[in-house]
Structures are given as structure tokens and as C-alpha cells.
Amino acid sequence: KEATLAIIKPDGVLGNHTDAIKATILQSGFKISREKIIQLDKDSASSFYAEHSTKRFFDSLVKYVTSGPVLVMVLEKENAISDWRALIGPTDGSKAKITHPNSIRAMCGTDVEKNCIHGSDSPQSAQREISFFFDTSTSQWFALPLQSPIL
Ligand code: GTP
Ligand code: MG
User: Can you tell me which residues form the catalytic site (predicted)?
Assistant: First the structure.
């Protein structure tokens, strides 16, 4: 099964959208295999969004994602990465309400910045982003005995 990273951003958490988003996730066939609530600081947010460091909106983006707690989750299912991107909808929450009314960003997004949710955009970024927030050595450790000739 494929894994992807989801983040309910501060506007999603503080706007009380967490339960509705999780219900949508489970109804759509994803398993939530790991989750934690954290407060990002300026350094960690800048590092997470490093690909956008030269964009005009970078400082505003870092301020936004550090403005309150975020809920970080690893979601698993077949085709998790592209299916999750489809479920969250387009970047701009105000446009999502018109073009993708059933998307998560239509439900809780406000504009092109405050869009309440994140999803990894490729297998490479999913791997980077999951290990950015979670210790991925644990599941490998659990997998090892199954491959051992002793068992
Ligand atoms: P993520 O799943 O959060 O990565 O969103 P995305 O892939 O749909 O968008 P992208 O990676 O291009 O941008 C990352 C985040 O920066 C977005 O989710 C928005 O919060 C913010 N952002 C993107 N474009 C703009 C913009 O034009 N202006 C502002 N202020 N913020 C933006
Ligand atoms: Mg992105």
C-alpha cells in the first residue's frame, strides 16, 4: 500500500474541522496509520516548505502554518498520493468551492493561502515529508523479524 502525508493546517484545527476531515478520510478508504498534533516553529516550517523559499508568498506562508497547532497524519491506501490530492482539491480554497464542491478545501479552505489541508504531491515528496515528521525506522524494525530465516 502507498503512504502519503496529510496536514490539517492551523485554520483547519482552530476552525474545528478536524472531525469532519477525519470522517472524510476514513469514508474514502484511507487508513490513518500515524498521527500527531504539533506546533511548527519558524525553522521547521521554513525547512518543510523549502521548495517555496524563493516565492513572494514564502514569509506569509511560514507565518500562517506557524500560527497555531497542526495535525500531521500518514494516510495509507492503494494510490494514496494522487487520491489524497484529488480529495483535498485545488490550492485556492475559494475556487475549490466553485470547481470542486465536494473537496476538503471547498469545505474548510478560505483562499489561496488559508486552504486548511496539505497533501504530498509525488512519491518523492511523500517519502521526504513522512520522514520529516515521523521516525520511519520503527516500521522497518518491525518488518525485519518477518524476513528472518529463523521464523
Ligand atoms: P500543499 O498541499 O500545502 O503543498 O498545497 P499545494 O501543493 O496545493 O500548493 P503549493 O505547494 O503550490 O503551495 C504550498 C502552500 O503555500 C499552499 O497550500 C498555500 O497555503 C500557500 N500558497 C500557495 N500559493 C500561494 C500564493 O499564491 N499566495 C499565498 N499567500 N500563499 C500561497
Ligand atoms: Mg505543494
Answer: 118
Instruction: Please say whether the structural domain 2-147 has been given the CATH code 3.30.930.10.
Output: no
CA of 73 to the centre of ligand 1 (A): 18
Q: How far is the CA of 52 from the centre of ligand 2 (A)?
A: 9
Q: Whose CA is nearest to atom 4 of ligand 1?
A: 118
Whole-model pTM above 0.90?
Answer: yes
Q: Where are the domains of the chain?
A: 2-147
> What SS3 state is found at 71?
strand
Q: Chain centroid to CA 17: how far? A: 14
Closest C-alpha residue for ligand 1 atom 21: 113
Report ipTM (2 d.p.).
Answer: 0.96
Sign of CA dihedral 74, 77, 83, 87: negative
